Amino acid sequence: MSRPLSHYFIYMGHNSYLTGNQLSSDCSDIPIIKALQRGVRVIELDMWPNSAKDDINILHGRTLTTPVSLIKCLRSIKEYAFVASPYPVIITLEDHLPADLQDKVAKMVLEVFGNILYYPDTDQLKEFPSPEELKGRVILSTKPPKEYLEAKVGTMKEGDADLHLGKGAGDDAAWGKEVPDFHTEIKSAKKLDDDVSEHQ
């Protein structure tokens, strides 16, 4: 396990917080705990503002899934991260938050993980450290929120055409497809039913 981390296949969870289906199940830290006990090394958390916009919920966005708090998930990850394997745990944060809540996430992450959180020595990392070097460490993986990138496109000038929205075209295979807005889907289905009824 002495080659760079990117040389290995990694046991990854997708929507690691869901107890059941992606549209209406509960979100919980229990599936995260079970995944870590099985040796999963990548945990995905989708972060959304709560209804009061003052805290962070983990849920499958634009669906009827019930949320779980981010802090509960982080604490469970810390407690169970290395029960099945000493090798690093990567937390993928899918970010749908405004700047003030991003700051709150940063504070939570530092408070929960402290010195086991991995920081690269440089901004220009030529290759990842090895799993051996990263034993007992937690790594965060994230990118600017899709909402931020969409807002930025509205202010693009000529020559900025290389700015991409959210996930790349090839990312669906790695990350899974996003579920469309469930409420919109319900309205569309109802309208289709109404149209069919009118023509019968």
From TrEMBL:
Judged by the first EC level, this protein's enzyme class is: hydrolase
Xref: Gene3D superfamilies: Phosphatidylinositol (PI) phosphodiesterase
Q: Any idea where the Phosphatidylinositol-specific phospholipase C X domain is?
A: 1-143
Gene Ontology cellular component list: plasma membrane
Q: Which GO terms describe its biological process?
A: lipid catabolic process; phosphatidylinositol-mediated signaling; release of sequestered calcium ion into cytosol
Main location per the UniProt record: membrane
**PROSITE patterns recorded for this chain?**
PIPLC_X_DOMAIN
Entry superkingdom? Eukaryota
Zinc in keyword set = no
Q: Give the record's membrane topology.
A: Peripheral membrane protein
Alphabetized GO MF terms: phosphatidylinositol-4,5-bisphosphate phospholipase C activity
Question: Do you know which SMART domains this protein is assigned to?
Answer: PLCXc (SM00148)
Keyword hit for Hydrolase: yes
What's the catalysed reaction?
a 1,2-diacyl-sn-glycero-3-phospho-(1D-myo-inositol-4,5-bisphosphate) + H2O = 1D-myo-inositol 1,4,5-trisphosphate + a 1,2-diacyl-sn-glycerol + H(+)
Signal peptide residues on this chain, from the entry's feature table? none
Which keywords accompany this UniProt record? Hydrolase, Lipid degradation, Lipid metabolism
Q: Which InterPro entries match?
A: PI-PLC_fam, PLC-like_Pdiesterase_TIM-brl, PLipase_C_PInositol-sp_X_dom
Q: What is its EC number?
A: 3.1.4.11
Coiled-coil features, chain-numbered ranges? none
Listed Pfam families? PI-PLC-X
Q: What is this protein called?
A: Phosphoinositide phospholipase C
Organism listed in the record: Panicum virgatum
